[in-house]
Amino acid sequence: MTTIPPRVHHPDESMEFFTDEGCAILETWNRPEDEAVSIARARVPARQTTRLHRLHGIEERYLIVSGCGQVEVGGHVPTLVQSGDLVYIPAGCTQRITSLGEEDLVFFAICTPRFVPEAYEDVEEPR
Predict the structure, then answer these.
(1) What is the mean pLDDT of the chain?
(2) Is 2 part of a structural domain of the chain?
(3) How many of the other CB atoms lie within 10 Å of CB of 105?
(4) Is residue 92 part of a domain?
(5) Has the keyword Amino-acid biosynthesis been applied to this entry (predicted)?
(6) Rounded to whole angstroms, how far apart are CA atoms 64 and 28?
């Protein structure tokens, strides 16, 4: 295990990018030297839904920061979420989230171990 020295990291807002999944991502913390965790700020535009997907070998937690939405996890009943709510998503579980209302839904996606693109699988039927 690599030891990471103490630090304060300031994400560069200009590095936010829009994904094929349907949300904007700012990688707040995702480093090869810290395999244990990654943290990304996700932003789903108002009245949009991300694509149904799953992460292989990675547990994920959504910590809702602002806006309101509806999350679908593993075939369970869609559930309303708002600021302060936390959604736990086991590895391999299908998931998607919808931004309800007039403002973007913003949340932190906390992945353990850290997110790697190879773990992502889009499982939604083509539109």
Answers:
(1) 95
(2) no
(3) 30
(4) yes
(5) no
(6) 15
